[in-house]
Amino acid sequence: MRHALPSDFDIAASDSTSLSEILGAFSYALDLTEGQPEGHSLRSCWIASRIAQTLGLCATERRNVYYATLLKDLGCSSNAARIAEIYLADDRSFKHDYKLVQEGLGPTLRFVFSRTGPGHSFAARARAIATILKDGTNIAHDLILTRCTRGADIARRLRFPEAVAGAIAALDEHWDGGGKPQGVRGDAIPLAARLALLAQVADVFQKAGGPEAALAEVAARRGTWFDPELVDAFLRIATDPAFWRDVNAPTLEARIGAFEPEDTRITVDEDYLDDIAEAFGAVIDAKSPYTGGHSGRVGYYAHGLGEAMGMSPQDVRHLRRAAILHDVGKLAVSSRVLEKPGKLDDVEWIEMRSHAMHTMEILSRIGPLRDMASVAAAHHERLDGKGYPLGLGQMLIAPEARIITVCDFYDALTADRPYRAAMPVEKALSIIESEVGKAVDGTCVDALRAMVMNEAEQPIHP
Prior knowledge:
This protein is mainly α and 462 residues long. The protein has 22 helices and no strands. The protein has two domains: 19-78 and 145-264, Hypothetical protein af1432; 270-454, Hypothetical protein af1432, CATH 1.10.3210.10. The protein has helices at 19-33, 40-54, 59-70, 80-87, 91-98, 105-115, 122-157, 162-169, 191-209, 211-220, 228-238, 241-247, 252-255, 270-285, 294-308, 313-324, 335-338, 346-364, 373-377, 399-413, 425-433, 442-454. The protein is globular, with a radius of gyration of 23 Å. The N and C termini lie close together (11 Å). 46% of the residues are buried.
């Protein structure tokens, strides 16, 4: 990572791309992996920022609230596979529905019993529930600790100060000390974390049951989950129907930047954009225990092939970003599909294939990455036209997409996967070479072989 920003967020920018615009667009990827309706992070950010404005917080505090809430789910992909494994369930729908469980042990247990192991045998469900009953407290603690720690770490990689990272780490702490992972209580919980959690609950319940449901749920958790002063401020502004019209306005994405204090607004230069791509590559890879480092390695290989094939330095830089982010759409795929050790059925295969179009949709929202969205999304296209998502023929597959395809193919073969162990380098290269002219481009494969052979005996550390 390059030089970190100082705590006051100063940055010398080479263009006018706003950090809030870029991260607001990326927040849709976080909504996908949490199973939330599109725009959840943006709506939560708006709600928290309105409360912060009502409380008269200073610009620095409002900025911390803004980014902590917008990025509150940075670590959510890191516990997805574990949730799918423990509860024998689709992690995305499980997470979505769990957020709607009302406060209390009874509702929580009823939810767990009813939602563990759908479609599995009685014996499998019984074993899973027995494990949860035996060690449920530790399981819940570890899941939240993993998510909060990972989210805070990625926030630091995004150059945010400790006030933002610490708020993300404390998202699940409760005012009465009954939260996780540290059991912190009262004013010891960062203000930005208190506002982010309240805003999250408000949005989840208003999308499920309307504003009245949100108002009732927030009020019911006053003094337990939530700071009473923040609840009172929320209730003062949220009883106005115009508040909810703003929250749910189709133009919210364009308007959300208005809550980032103007005197602390950040523009993004090329180096910072590289760091943002790398940070979200880490979010993507955390989705599966089998993909640690995958995005970075594909970016590394693509960078090397781009240089070897005569691309300009700027084009190589853009290619590397697209390669790092090629699998961002997998955040929308259930971990029970991603981690399945056997062959996918037809429904599962459709879900798996959908990740390419999700990649296109996510990256198309981000101005500086928009031109590479179709390239990143085409990493499963084939020269013979039998690939996906669009079934493009040879003439329509860009050279950059061909490079990413070969790099992704190679790293997938040489890494452990749920259904097989990693392959030796030579075997992987032989398999790829057998697909030349059908799935992959021969020039790219030749460049890959030369690169790998030149680095033989040297471990790759992108």
